[in-house]
Structure formats: C-alpha cells, structure tokens
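User: Watch each token:
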Amino acid sequence: MYFRDVIGLHDVKQHLINSVRQGHVPHARIFYGPEGVGKLPLAIAYARYLNCSNRGDEDACGECPSCHKFDKWAHPDLHFVFPVVKSKVSDHYLSQWREFLSGHHYFNLNDWLNFIDAQNAQGIIYAKESDEIIRKLNLKVYEAPYKIMVVWLPEKMHVVCANKLLKLLEEPPGDTVFLLVSEEKEDVLQTIWSRCQPLHIRAIEKEEMGVALQQKFGLDREQALSTAHIANGSFTKAIEIIQTSEYREYLLELFTQMMRDAFSGKIKPIREIANKIAGIGREMQKSFLLYSLGLFREYFVSNLHEPEIVYLNKEEQQFGERFAPFINEKNIETLSEEFSLAYRQIEQNGNAKIIFLDLCLKVTMLLRK
C-alpha cells in the first residue's frame, strides 16, 4: 500500500510526508477515526515511506529493496499485531494476514474474521501476544531505518497484554516506531492512549469516494455518488452496499420483523423473533445491532424533513414512511442505549436468547411512547 492507494485525505498524507522529511518521527502514533476511512492503509503507507531509501515528495519510490519487500509483505522490520481467535498470537495467522492484505485495502474486523473462518468466535489480541511483541522489538533492526510495529485495533487487546506494553510504548528500543490503528478510541486503555501521538482520520469526502467507486466498480456518476452518500464517508461500507446488498436486505428483514412483532405486544411472535436473532451467530448479531442503531438515527432525522442528511436506501426509506414517526425525542435516546447495551452484552458472550428477548420487550414499551 502506498499513499496513492489511500482515497482522499490529501492533507493528512502531506502532513505525514512532511513530518518524515523534517525528521519528526514520533515513536508511537495512533491513527483513529470511524471504520472504513483508510486508517490502516494510511498507516502502512506511512510505514513504507519511513523505510523507503529513495523517498519522493508525494510517496515512496516503489523501486528500492525496502519497497519491493513491502510489496510482498515480507519486510523483516515490519511487524503486525491484529485480533485472532483460538487463544493464538498473530504470527500463527501471518500467512493468511499477508494473503488478506494483498487482496483487501479497505476492510473491517468482520471481513478478517470471515476470511480466517472464525465462525462465532470474536477477534481478540490475547495476553500472550505481549511476549511476542517484546521479543520482536528487542531484536536489532535488520536493514531499514526503522523497526515498525503496526497494531490493528488496540481496543481488542487483552488488558494483560496492554499493561505489559506500557513501558515499551513509553521507552521503546532505538529506531522503533509503533503505529496503532483504532476505530473505538473510547475502548483503548487511557494509559496506552496517553503514550501515543493521536492523529484523527476523518470520513472520506463524498466526491472523492464517488470517483473511487466509479474507477473500482464501474458505476456511473449518479450511482457512485448515491452509494457514497449512504456510506457516509466509509469506503468499507460503500463496498458492503455494492457487494452485499442481500446481507443488508436480510438485516432489514430482521429489523422490520422485530419492530412489527414488538409493536404488536404479543408474546409469542416476540419470543419467536428474539429466538431467531439469537440463532444467527454472534458476529451477525453484533452487525444487526449496529445496523439497527443506524436505522434509528436515520428514521429520527428523517422526521426533520431534511433528505440531504438522511442515509437510507430505497427499501429502508419505504419501511420508514410508516415507521419513522414512532422514533421520536421521547424514545430515541433510550432505544440507542438499550441496543448499545445489548451489543456490549453480546460482545461479552452473554446469553443471546435472554438478551434479545429482554431487548424486544423493551422495544415494545419504547415504541408506544
């Protein structure tokens, strides 16, 4: 990945390039911002630029030995840490990670877990990973100016692992650079956060994303801009909209059924939809809850009659014509809190049947406000 592979964010890229050329290289940066805006591609492009032996004004050269090794994900001074399953460490999945990166520039945790067939397991950076990080960073630099450790999603790091790394982050070995990439800054330990220089990565501009979608998927301008509008700055979401329309339809089907059954107040259909959602697997349950939170926001905003700030596809809009008035200032905040709580409970391996039955019953009361 090069800076040119990162969509938009021209000022951020120029800032990183200028900092290197001026000799200002913090020993630990944390790239943070919403999902799908290019934080990991940007961090990898920055790592490549740091170790390029013939840096250009706008990007790495692509011709030096370091760049050739980056192209193959085989640079001896580039290390990765990322969420895995089965209580393993990142190196156990390194060949799959390299293969995944070769075919994906913009992706999310679900994409990675599906690639390694994690099934219902949740990705975690386990406690034992800290020993591997310490071991690698205590080695001498092989051939490049910097030894670089890229940590994708430090918010998924086990607290034992995080605490073991505090001293290393504060006083790393010479010529070592940590690049952390976070999507949930509130979930990163404050002691980790305070030891890094933060760099906020904003959403991708609509026009820039539209151009990228036209080039990558052959969409016409109107289709590309419509998709970019719904994606709201996330290229990962835009790809999902284009490639997984059936998946989005399924989530909408679950949502509409849940809302209708909950509104009916009849216990039998409420129990049936709760059990149905409880049986779809934890990662999909989490996707459903996040999707539902997004719909609540859109339906609430749609009541303001400002279509330019509403991000719904045709089917979602059709359901919202009747449903949106039930999402109002009396229940929007509590609905958001309850669905966010359910998300955290699912993430903590709570009993899905109990969680979703309780959630459906609460929705029944909230929709009647």
Notes: Residues 100 and 225 are 28 Å apart (CA to CA).
